């Protein structure tokens, strides 16, 4: 609630988090002003989020910051496919993300590593957001429009136990426990281990279980003055069911249900046949060495292992259509092929997607610091193997089990990727005139090499086409310049210019409508703003301009049985400009108020050409021949206006109350602007009791959190197409009661 917005000042603020931060003023326990930070940044500290429901998804906290639009099916982000993040018009696929310095790839649920898999809210220490452009040191090959850095907190260094239990809407039960230790032996490391278990169901489908088990452990060893080693291990296991999806008029295009009917065409949509699961593990080591009083070396090696599955049912009629396509010579199929088999006429078929892989990498930074100058050089290398297979199988009658004794009905794809990433950066920050003027200059270079082998998509399977190819995207010079100027001891101007580059998305390389001429995206970002911090009052105002070239647009072709393929294509230039404002007023030691305002215009500058079957021959690839009129249209899922208000009040005798409201303006659901969704306002509230630091109830805390208090109906995640959108419902009213204790 307001504590979230305190980070607002970000935009004034704290970018300072990992590398640029020096000389931060603070308001209570919240970073408010990061002097000398040359870009729009926002920061949330642990104390900002402690009055939210425990276990809330880390991404959800960003919604309190200017420029950010987060959509989730519930506050926990239980359904990963039902989560989206947009910052200044950029999607989560175009934003760099790290956790304790480890790059988390993208928010792609299959290939990527969303942060909610690896850190619980109770273990968060800090979240730093750069809305416009991340620092050149950010390890990412997607960061066109900013970066998010998550930091987990360190071991407490004493014996301590923290527990919480939450119960509430949708049969949610969540339990959490964390144990902190002092030095495990004399001179040894301090540590903590934390574990949680969450169980819930979908709002309308109570047989649709949503389950998650999670473990985190951290060990910190101090080797001497300035030398530390921090080892972290994270484990996450998730199992859930798919959720329905809708058209704008409310038509359920994915009408999952709980009751078996005996009709295989209907029972293909029984919820039991639509499940997903993941098991992910991440190990990292953060090593810091103070080589001399002015020279510091930081190394972060890491290793991630991931495995997942996805099951979907297919009715006999659709399975037969897929089989016929695979054996149709007009589509390049072979009627005599022996790697497929005719589906049963009266039994549901099931597809089993298996996916996984492992990635290993290292980030390194060497920083030389003097009283007025910081010079840093660093880099990043990663090697990532990922596979993804999706055959359609017969089912053993009466069991629901896969029948592996028969050949598959078809295979949607069988893909293996290897991705190698090489990045370097150089950065110099100079402070002049007693720190009143800060100048920053840097550059980074990036090369992304991908190797593919396998069956790219369903059309390729039908043609019996096995492919191998290499793709290399690179840009070795991406400059960034910035400055801050202290106008008074309280006010500061900042300006920043950055050029960014993003490698071609993995899925674009294997889409059915592959564009061999697809160009990587580039962007140029400009930030200009003013920060002010005057005791009880702090505020920020910033203006920004972003120019995209070769913007890659992802459109959704929705068909749950045939498996809709996304289409990727360059759509020319998109220009974005806007303004962001944030205010914080600490009226008293008990009362805090905050507000943010975001204005954004992100519009296509050109029409684009869509794929279509120009020659009438279904066996030949589609080509880009149809012009789509989108010039001057706002890009999908990007509101022009967002406004938030927050208040926090500490009542006598340990009671507290918080409330926040956010207005999200009208959003387009299609590239042509043919469909739009209305703006909406969501109000959240919390009331609780924090026991005194001593006494009978020492360490006890009780909180009631209500999200969407007025039960506002609105569309959440939008999957856009040219003229229509596909929607998930936004979070309905949910209520949670939490009891926490610390010993």
TrEMBL record:
Q: Which region ranges are annotated with the description Disordered?
A: 612-632
Q: Where is the TonB-dependent receptor plug domain?
A: 37-139
Going by the entry's taxonomy, the superkingdom of the source organism is recorded as Bacteria
Q: Is Signal there in the keyword field? A: yes
**SUPFAM superfamilies given for it?**
Porins
Which protein family is it in? Answer: Belongs to the TonB-dependent receptor family.
Please give the name of this protein.
Answer: TonB-dependent receptor
């Amino acid at each position: 609630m307001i504590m979230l917005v305190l980070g607002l000042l970000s935009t004034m603020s704290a970018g300072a988090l990992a590398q640029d931060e020096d000389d931060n003023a603070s308001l209570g326990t919240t970073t408010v002003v990061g002097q000398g930070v040359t870009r729009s940044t926002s920061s949330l500290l642990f104390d900002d989020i402690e009055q939210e429901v425990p276990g809330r998804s880390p991404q959800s906290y960003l919604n309190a910051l200017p420029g950010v639009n987060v959509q989730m099916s519930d506050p926990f982000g239980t359904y990963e496919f039902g989560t989206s993040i947009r910052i200044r018009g950029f999607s989560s696929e175009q934003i760099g993300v790290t956790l304790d310095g480890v790059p988390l790839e993208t928010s792609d649920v299959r290939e990527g590593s969303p942060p909610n898999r690896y850190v619980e809210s109770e273990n968060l220490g800090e979240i730093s957001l750069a809305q416009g452009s991340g620092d050149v040191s950010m390890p990412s090959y997607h960061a066109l429009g900013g970066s998010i850095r998550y930091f987990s907190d360190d071991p407490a260094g004493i014996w301590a136990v923290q527990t919480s239990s939450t119960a509430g809407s949708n049969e949610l039960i969540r339990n959490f426990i964390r144990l902190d230790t002092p030095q495990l032996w004399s001179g040894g490391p301090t540590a903590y281990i934390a574990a949680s278990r969450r169980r819930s169901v979908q709002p309308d489908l109570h047989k649709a279980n949503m389950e998650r088990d999670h473990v985190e452990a951290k060990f910190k060893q101090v080797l001497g003055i300035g030398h530390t080693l921090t080892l972290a291990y994270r484990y996450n296991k998730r199992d859930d069911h798919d959720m329905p999806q809708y058209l704008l008029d409310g038509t359920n295009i994915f009408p999952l249900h709980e009751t078996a009917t005996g009709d295989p065409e209907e029972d293909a949509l029984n919820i039991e046949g639509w499940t997903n699961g993941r098991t992910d593990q991440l190990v990292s080591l953060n090593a810091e060495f103070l080589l001399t009083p002015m020279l510091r070396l930081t190394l972060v090696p890491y290793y991630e292992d991931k495995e997942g599955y996805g099951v979907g049912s297919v009715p006999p009629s659709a399975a037969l259509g897929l089989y016929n396509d695979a054996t149709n010579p007009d589509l390049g199929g072979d009627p005599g092929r022996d790697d497929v088999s005719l589906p049963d006429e009266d039994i549901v078929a099931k597809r089993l997607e298996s996916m996984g892989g492992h990635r290993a990498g290292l980030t390194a930074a060497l920083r030389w610091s003097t009283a007025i100058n910081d010079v840093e050089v660093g880099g990043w290398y990663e090697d990532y193997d990922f596979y993804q297979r999706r055959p359609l199988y017969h089912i053993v009658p009466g069991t629901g089990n896969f029948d592996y004794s028969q050949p598959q009905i078809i295979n949607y794809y069988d893909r293996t990727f290897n991705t190698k990433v090489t990045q370097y950066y150089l950065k110099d920050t100079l402070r002049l005139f007693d720190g009143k003027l800060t100048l920053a200059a840097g550059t980074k270079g990036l090369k992304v090499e991908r190797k593919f082998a396998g069956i790219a998509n369903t059309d390729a399977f039908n043609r019996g086409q096995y492919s191998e190819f290499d793709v290399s995207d690179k840009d070795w010079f991406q400059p960034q310049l910035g400055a801050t100027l202290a106008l008074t001891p309280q006010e500061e101007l900042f300006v920043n210019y950055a050029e960014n580059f993003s490698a071609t998305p993995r899925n674009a390389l294997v889409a059915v409508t592959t564009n061999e001429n697809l160009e990587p995206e580039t962007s140029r970002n400009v930030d200009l703003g003013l920060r002010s911090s005057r005791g009880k009052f702090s505020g920020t105002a910033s203006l920004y301009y972003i120019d995209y070239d070769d913007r890659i647009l992802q459109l959704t072709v929705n068909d749950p049985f045939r498996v809709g393929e996304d289409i990727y294509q360059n759509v020319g230039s998109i220009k974005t400009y806007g303004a962001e404002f944030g205010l914080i007023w600490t009226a008293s030691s008990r009362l805090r108020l905050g507000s943010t305002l975001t204005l954004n215009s992100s519009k296509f500058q050109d029409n684009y050409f869509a794929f279509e079957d120009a020659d009438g021959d279904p066996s030949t690839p589609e080509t880009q021949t149809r012009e789509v009129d989108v010039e001057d249209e706002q890009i999908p899922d990007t509101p022009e206006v967002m406004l938030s208000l927050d208040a926090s009040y500490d009542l006598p005798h340990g009671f507290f109350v918080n409330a926040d409201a956010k207005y999200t303006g009208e959003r387009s659901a299609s590239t042509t602007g043919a469909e739009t969704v209305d703006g909406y306002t969501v109000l959240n509230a919390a009331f609780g009791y924090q026991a005194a630091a001593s006494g009978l109830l020492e360490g006890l805390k009780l909180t009631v959190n209500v999200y969407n208090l007025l039960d506002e109906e609105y569309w959440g995640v939008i999957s856009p197409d040219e003229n229509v959108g596909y929607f998930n419902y936004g979070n309905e009213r949910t209520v949670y009661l939490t009891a926490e204790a610390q010993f």
